């Protein structure tokens, strides 16, 4: 059976966690394929909010198997905290949670290196989540990393020590004021590794292959968003993995011809957390309203998210690189009450009008060209049928579907599982 993918099309936080949870009942296996605890995926049901960082968003469904794929980077300390939270909720994760032996481990010194690198960059900092993501992927591609499978070998602590020592000299090299007590960090780390080792490690590409062969349905859960992709995002203000569809092939071992549906998720407006260009960013009352009504604060870092209008140029680009087959529009409820909505349909770039995403999208290079749409005043949060959606919202949706040539099959009207309208 083909593997379906679910990916964010903007700068992350589109609502991936919510929709994976909504769709899980249709799948046997939910698999994360990249990123790590930089992600914060929020699920809301039965009046309770849950935030997952590394664990796939299918974990609250008893019947689903949840796989942390080889493309993911795992911080045992954060992973343990996630497990503790699940235990508090009486979630029996032991039988349903599998971890790839080829996934890489985030060391305490990776986190310190992230902080040192960001401090050294000063104003030019990426605005990383400081979870050690960049340094861990650097060690992966530099062929120095520590993998989950290494933890099964007696020699893993020697490998750990050599790597951590090297990192310490690299931290010194940055010559910045980073205060840390490595011994203390290591106590937590080794404790957490013990917990991690009590879980089931597998050769995940073989598992995925056999699962496909035996007709099991698989949904791959993306983290971050397409505009944070290491190749196609707003480099260098990106994360260190391929967040786009191809990342699911390398991050799970799924052959390209075995990909089925590609679900692309976007907010009805745009947000970004951290540094980097954002052409449709708002600095006025409209942006403030989106932030306030949408509770736009990072699920991992708590930082306020920057807000702005929907950017169709960027969205088209994300649909192209991912081969999106179905779209899901999130947080439509947040736009209720705006008199006029704007969508960027092109950019003014070096004196010309363009409709594709250029190499440079810094504010000095591009100026968005907007189309206006009439807003709606109805509260959408109690709606459950597509037929009840206001006509102005339907016009907005029709326009996007026509421009993107992809159907919008879900409209989300609130954070809860139930606030999901299928079209
Ligand atoms: P993810 O990283 O893509 O899983 O998204 P996050 O969880 O970081 O951010 C999405 C935020 O929006 C969370 O607080 C969700 O609970 C919330 N959310 C998801 N869908 C909707 C929606 O349709 N309406 C509203 N108002 N909030 C939503
Ligand atoms: P989810 O999966 C939003 C951003 C950071 C920073 C840049 C690099 O919840 O959508 P990193 O720590 O990866 O080196 O940071 O990427 N970032 C995210 N922004 N949602 C995320 O994940 C993010 N993961 C990383 O803010 O700008
Ligand atoms: Mg998030």
From TrEMBL:
Pathway: Purine metabolism; AMP biosynthesis via de novo pathway; AMP from IMP: step 1/2. It comes from the Bacteria. The active site is at 13 (proton acceptor), 41 (proton donor), 140. GTP binds at residues 12-18, 40-42, 305, 331-333, 412-414. Its main location: cytoplasm. Keywords: Cytoplasm, GTP-binding, Ligase, Magnesium, Metal-binding, Nucleotide-binding, Purine biosynthesis. Gene3D superfamilies: Adenylosuccinate Synthetase, subunit A, domain 1 (3.40.440.10), Adenylosuccinate Synthetase, subunit A, domain 2 (1.10.300.10), Adenylosuccinate Synthetase, subunit A, domain 3 (3.90.170.10). PROSITE patterns: ADENYLOSUCCIN_SYN_1, ADENYLOSUCCIN_SYN_2. Its EC number is 6.3.4.4. It is found in: Cytoplasm. Binds 1 Mg(2+) ion per subunit. GO terms for molecular function: adenylosuccinate synthase activity. SUPFAM superfamilies: P-loop containing nucleoside triphosphate hydrolases (SSF52540). Belongs to the adenylosuccinate synthetase family. Plays an important role in the de novo pathway of purine nucleotide biosynthesis. Catalyzes the first committed step in the biosynthesis of AMP from IMP. Homodimer. This is Adenylosuccinate synthetase. The lineage of its organism: Bacteria, Pseudomonadati, Bacteroidota, Flavobacteriia, Flavobacteriales.
